[in-house]
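Quick one:
INPUT:
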């Protein structure tokens, strides 16, 4: 959804379905049901507030921000979603840290190491606790469906035209005692259908025995994101 020309003092909205939304609607089986929405401010330059102050800066943002049309590509729309918080003094937002891995990059192979368990936990700077309204109850995990899948029983809610599979996972029962934030544990499995042809097509330039693929985890309540990189090799 985008805000169009408002020179007549009327608020004009351009609302469209994303590519995934149109795909779900096209099923025509009654399963498509819009139950929530979100706002984002991807186009707003908040350094204007820092430069001119809140009053003048707000006016400049309203008058000078370019008008954007709604995007149908869900991968590049709403990267920075707005949050409504009841704590006006909050100065930090939660982020994710790895509990099961020492690095954002890890290795897999199609012979002896086909899976990797990942545990993320919510943390927040200073001595604060994660506000209750920002404790993620569900997480969106996106992986390339050509190369990997989550566990053996999880099913993606959608697979887009770029073969990105989206999973919605509930949080772990336990929490991070130090911050009060939630945790997420999931297992990444290399697909058995990963063939030599796929390595030849998507392999790293100069080394077709390896494929690099990103995994993105997003907290549904906090909007925090964590990107991981899996390096999948043909040899053990």
């Amino acid at each position: 959804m985008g805000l169009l020309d408002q020179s007549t003092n009327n608020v004009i909205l351009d609302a469209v379905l994303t590519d995934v939304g149109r795909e779900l609607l096209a099923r025509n089986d009654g399963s498509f049901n819009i139950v929530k929405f979100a706002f984002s401010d991807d186009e707003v330059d908040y350094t204007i507030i820092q430069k001119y102050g809140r009053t003048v800066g707000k006016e400049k943002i309203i008058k000078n921000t370019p008008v954007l049309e709604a995007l149908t590509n869900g991968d590049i729309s709403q990267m920075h979603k707005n949050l409504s918080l009841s704590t006006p003094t909050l100065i930090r937002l939660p982020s994710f840290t790895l509990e099961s891995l020492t690095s954002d990059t890890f290795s897999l192979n199609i012979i002896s190491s086909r899976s990797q368990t990942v545990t993320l936990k919510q943390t927040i700077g200073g001595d604060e606790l994660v506000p209750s309204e920002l404790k993620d109850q569900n997480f969106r995990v996106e992986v390339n469906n050509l190369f990997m899948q989550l566990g053996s029983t999880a099913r993606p809610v959608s697979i887009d035209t770029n073969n990105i599979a989206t999973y919605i996972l509930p949080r772990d029962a336990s929490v991070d005692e130090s911050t009060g934030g939630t945790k997420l544990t999931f297992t990444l499995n290399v697909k058995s259908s990963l063939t030599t042809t796929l390595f030849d097509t998507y392999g790293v330039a100069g080394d077709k025995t390896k494929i690099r693929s990103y995994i993105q985890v997003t907290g549904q309540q906090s909007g925090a994101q964590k990107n991981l990189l899996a390096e999948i090799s043909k040899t053990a």
